[in-house]
Amino acid sequence: MKNAICTFCGNVCDDIEFDGTVGKNLCPIGEAKFAAKRRMEAPTIEGEKVSYEEAIERAAEILVNAKRPLLYGWASTVNEAIKLGVILAEKLGGIYDQCSSVCHAPSTLAMIEEGIPGGTLGQAKNRADVIVFWGCNPVEAHPRHPSRYSVMARGFLTKGRQYRHIVVVDVRKTATAYLATEFYQIKPGYDFAVFTALRSIVNGHEDAVPDEVGGLSKEKLKELADVLMDGKYGVIFYGLGLTHSRGQDRNVECIVKLVQTLNRQTRYILQPMRGHFNVVGAGAVAAWEAGYEYAIDFSRGYPRFSPSEFTAVEALLRKDCDAALIVASDPAAHFPKKAVERLAEIPVIQIDPHPNVTTLLADIVIPSAIVGIEAEGTVYRMDGIPLRVKKLRETEYWSDYQILRLMLDKVIQMKGE
Amino acid sequence: MTLHIKNGIVVDPKNGIAGEKMDIFIKDGKIVEESEVGKECKTIDVSGKLVVAGGVDLHAHIAGGKINTGRAMRPEEMRFVRRKSNGLRAAVGRTLLTSPAIGYEYAKMGYTTAIEPATPSIYVIHTHEELDSIPIIDKATLPLFGNWHPVFKYAADKDVEKMKSFVAWVLERTKGYGVKLVNPGGVEAWMYGGNVSGLDDTIPGFGVTPREVITTLIAAVEELKLPHSVHLHCNNLGVPGNYETTMETIKLAKKFRNDNRQVLHVTHVQFNAYTGSSWRDMGSGAEEIAKLVNSMNNVTIDMGQPIFGHATTMTADSPFQFELHKLVKAKWCNKDVELETGAGIVPLVYRPKSPVNAVQWATGLELGLLVDADKIAVSTDYPNGGPFTAYPYIVTLLMSRKFREEEMKKAHQYIEKATALPSIDKERSIEEVIQMTRVTPARVLGMENKGHLGVGADGDVVVYDIDPLNYDSSDYQAILKALENPLYTIKGGEIVVKNGDVVGEVWGRTFWVDASEQTTTEIIEADLDEYFNYYTVKRCNYGVEEGWLHNPVRITAG
Ligand code: SF4
Fold first, then answer.
1. Start-to-end CA span in chain B (Å)
2. Residue A384: which of B65, B77, B85 has the nearest Cβ?
3. What ipTM score was computed for the predicted complex, to two decimals?
4. Is the same domain home to A234 and A110?
5. Which of A115, A125, A285 shows the shortest C-beta gap to B331?
6. Which residues of chain A have a CB within 8 Å of the CB of B192?
7. What is the pLDDT of residues A61-106, one digit of tens each?
8. Hey, which bits of B271-332 come out as E strands?
9. Which of B59, B269, B259 is nearest to B178 (CA)?
10. A226 and A323 both lie in a single domain
């Protein structure tokens, strides 16, 4: 199959040639995704093999009997399954939360404050003469980003690498920094201060900037501001380096304001480097079905949003949830210890194509078809562009959609609605 | 399922019925003759009540990346709870509604069809996913053409054949319904910080003008015989003095002729109907525009009525959105989209005591009162002017001079100087407002089975608690209450609303237009292949298949 779609990172490359076992054009991390891996043989309840129907029936019972189940994960499945997840959370009066709450949630909070001046990856490819990578390292995390969309991409108006000024700003010299025209190393935790200095210079207040900010001399800052202002069309990509260092959403808010200011003089867009291939969908579907992107509680019969209460980690730490459905995710490997301990105390149902750390504490495990290889559906790339991922081979495994469809039907039946 | 709606007083302007006691019969989702229904038919007696076709909204941003980004950006909008989830879905949102809320709220005021009017084609799967998540109503989407590089190229080459081919290709790929243009040329100019200021500016990099883009597309759409004409958001939106550009644009239609419908639909005209040279001396150009539209027989418009209170502006007119962001100092989302189009979102409040907002409010109403009812449709350009849930309010304002007087008292007195509204005594009749909310939008869209109750029409019927032969226009509260709480909304023969409450959920259809018989894509194959070198998705992964949609209906052009 030509032009298959890779379902690993937020790049969602759509030019993969797949012959059933090997994929061409995949980067190393994409290859790992497509490589054969250990699978779970069948659904299990307390380790005992059962049929899909039995596992789903039992799961539905647990969820219906829970006072406030947590439905978490979603970033690595298709929108069609996510939609069922949101409706399920609503019917159950539970909490819907997704992987963003532990990665780019600060970006959402910044957007609530300031909006986001954004654009598609095609804008970077076709128009950008200045590209900035701030606190992100695509060479390792989104390996084909530089060639497909940014550094080397051959665009309509910007024809290739030599027409672009590439800037990397980070706290250490990353692999991406070696692609840069100019690398600026700043002190950890000083992003906010550096943005503020840059905004001052761009606004014509360089006299307010001290001799050194965040490890950059005033000269260096002025040089960087000039590079930014000289761009006819600039794109700033940023990553977890901003959202997970001191300041978090305030960092993002400040870079948004810098981009707003730059747009008064030239054109700039800002784009977060989103991780999982459909983490954007996990927020978007929830937004149109329930009004919010994550941390949504339905216990009152309608959706409420409160990141400090209804994210998975907060709800677990507070022991607010008495059962959990984990879909296409591995919270046991990524959540803080105390939250994982709570997860171990409550009944956990897992839906995932592969065993992971969460499997070890799951009471019911429902193996699913691999999205983009064994199951189709819609996913949103990091810039929100939708792509329909394909089914490349037949499987006996049920898709996330099929599993959740039956689970939702069972729940509706049990609740007598 | 068959349904007999008994003893109502029918207003059906398209079929010349102006308040006659009549029975209506629905079978298999369509209006039928009495002889076609059998004995086991459900009957509802609506003696003395107004019976009309379901409302049609030809322009509301109800689905896709813009409204959804708006939701994510404005959680403050979502705290308004419209219903809890018992039985049906929970529904929330003040002026930005969730998808379930959109379907329920349309049905609750007697609307059964709504058109999403601005989709970037590359995002169309998302738009369809949201349309498919809206219960009850029928829908369609209009892809954006006005700033797309191949469109500029074919307009510059005056190549109508290739333009036709491109339009047909896009409609098929997007499962789109018609051709939308937003600030043609202006969005491309914005990619480098500019805009265009009128019909004859050169679009940077393409040696072509907005005038040429608009007229070439009208020619293509007319030759393709699409059911809907070019649907245009003019240049210079939201700028004092812009009514001149709007008038000039409307006159472009004079070169074209179509006996069935308009050749140009100019949308949310209120935002393009200002006189003056700045916000300090702006006024209404509605009278002039109304005169012009009334004098022509091939142009239609919709109101774009602002509603005092909260709104969220969202358009593909990204340079305008940036200006608005600077003007009102509110948060701002922007999206530059490949080589296709752009978008922007800015929250806004229309304040009755603001002279500018008061003039905008009055201007919309002037258009609604002065333009012939068969040439104007009611709209708020949801959510730009405010929520579509305000349609009963707008219609009541049009019907009741007394209500207008009450509302004008709340507005800044500058409207007395800057608009003609205070001097307009006219009160729209029931036939006229039914025309403006049903017949006209259905005809503008080329939807033959919508907007009327003749045999063969869709079984979308609404019963309001008004006696059309005997009502008092000065008792505006009674009119408003009746319009906000239909006794019944019937969608495809199913009762979905009773006494103003949603009682049932059905799933509507998505219409799209197949124009492939009117042209061939062969002549643009090479162009498309070349062009897709500059996309970030492969041509074969671009667009949406019919099978992915919930309930698609293909309309063949011609
Ligand atoms: S860059 Fe990302 S999407 Fe592309 S092949 Fe690698 S892992 Fe897959």
1. 32
2. B65
3. 0.97
4. yes
5. A115
6. 232-233, 266-267
7. 999 999 999 999 999 999 999 999 999 999 999 999 999 998 889 9
8. 274-275, 283-284, 299-302, 309-315
9. B59
10. no
